[in-house]
Amino acid sequence: MRTRVKICGITREQDALLAAECGADAIGLVFYPPSPRAVSVERAAAIVRQLPPFVTTVGLFVNAEAELIARVVDEVGVDLLQFHGQECPDYCAQHRRPWIRAVSMKPGTDLAGMQRQFSA
After folding, report:
1. What is the pLDDT of residues 18-38, one digit of tens each?
2. CATH tag for 6-118 (out of 3.20.20.70, 3.40.50.1240, 3.40.190.10, 3.30.1360.180)
3. What residues contact 70, with CB distance under 8 A and at least 6 apart?
4. Under 8 Å between Cβ of 114 and 103
5. Residues whose CB is less than 8 angstroms from the CB of residue 86 and which lie 6 or more positions away in sequence, other chains included
6. HEC-encoded secondary structure of 49-117
7. pLDDT tens, 49-61?
8. What does the DSSP 8-state code read for residue 7?
9. Are the beta carbons of 21 and 13 closer than 8 angstroms?
10. Domain layout of the chain by residue ranges
11. Which pLDDT does position 104 carry in this prediction?
12. Which sign does the torsion angle of CA 7, 13, 15, 16 carry?
């Protein structure tokens, strides 16, 4: 099995292109305004337009409103959604894209419970 590489926090077209040229399989675009790596929908769309084929685009969200996610799906066309907040499985599944759910490993995290909650 080949290891896949995602470079997250891309904010500029030239960085996305360099990541692709260096062999990244995916790039991550952050749609969480408090992050210093957050991008607007317009900036993200400009970045994605520059990418070569077969580079997977991932939209990263933290407790985002459904309207923002729909806009990113429609206007940016990301391939995959990545959720980092307290999103439940039903919420993650409603957005017409494959998705992954990140889990923060803090003391007391019930990983087995999370696995049961989010198993496909």
Report:
1. 999 999 999 999 999 999 999
2. 3.20.20.70
3. 95
4. yes
5. 63
6. HHCCCCCEEEEEECCCCHHHHHHHHHHHCCCEEEECCCCCHHHHHCCCCCEEECCCCCCCCCHHHHHHH
7. 999 999 999 999 9
8. E
9. no
10. 6-118
11. 75
12. positive
What token pair was written down for 53? 């084929």
Residues 6+ apart with CB under 8 A from 84: 32, 60, 61, 62, 102, 104
CB atoms within 10 A of CB 36: 7
- Whole-prediction pTM value? 0.89
Name the pLDDT band for 117 (thresholds 50, 70, 90).
Answer: low
Query: 60 near 82, Cβ under 8 Å?
Result: yes
Residues 13 and 50: beta-carbon distance below 8 Å: yes
Question: Which pLDDT belongs to residue 35?
Answer: 98
Inform me whether the pLDDT recorded for 106 exceeds 80: no
Tokens representing residue 49 in the block: 């337009």
Tokens of 19: 């990541």
Q: What is the mean pLDDT of the chain?
A: 93
